[in-house]
């Protein structure tokens, strides 16, 4: 019985975590589960969060995080839209630390500014990543197709985007997917990139083949139950031998 009570107390109550260079309010030896404990730092220091005070929460005998006070002149990680940099394992950067920004594909540094320094708790002249004039915006929508890669707002020059045609649709070359490229700020779109219904077409490319299936009881002169014609130099290669004739009539003849 008593060991069980002791174990429950260890779960419900928790002593205050160590805090170098700061203080808790209120300061107690132990805190019940559910306590939200504020803390602040001594002069010249600040919490390791982007505020001048912070809190930790006791849940079932554990604090939600480790409270920490750091140098007032340290800097927190900046937000660089469309850019990246080497992240600090500590979660902050010491004064005079220099960040080197790498812009995402399709972006470049405005005014060629690529670095920023931590000075007295703030970053100096944070680089701005703007879209490159040779990059492309979102690719065009193709009817009856979907892009099979992650969404992007900007694509670098020479980027390739692949579309997958809807079931029952394909390109003029009968491919079920189609690609376009970012070339000098524009997409290499053409009508041949379209996904068209394979059951019906208004226009056929040169050398296209169309297959006809004869009705039951009918066949071509050669006795085939299907026949094909081809698009040759703008005309169809139709001939009488391609016709489907009544099989009984052929037999009688």
Automatic annotation (TrEMBL):
**Where would I find the Sushi domain in this sequence?**
73-131, 134-197
Principal cellular location given in the protein's record? virion
What's in the keyword line of the UniProt record? Disulfide bond, Signal, Sushi
Specify whether Signal is a keyword of the entry.
yes
Subcellular location per UniProt equals: Virion
Q: Cross-referenced InterPro entries, in alphabetical order? A: ComplSys_Reg/VirEntry_Med, Sushi/SCR/CCP_sf, Sushi_SCR_CCP_dom
Q: Which CDD domains match?
A: CCP
Please name every pair of cysteines joined by a disulfide bond in this record.
Answer: 75-118
What PANTHER family has UniProt attached to this entry?
Answer: COMPLEMENT FACTOR H-RELATED
Q: What is this protein called?
A: Sushi domain-containing protein
Query: From what organism does this protein derive?
Result: Echeneis naucrates
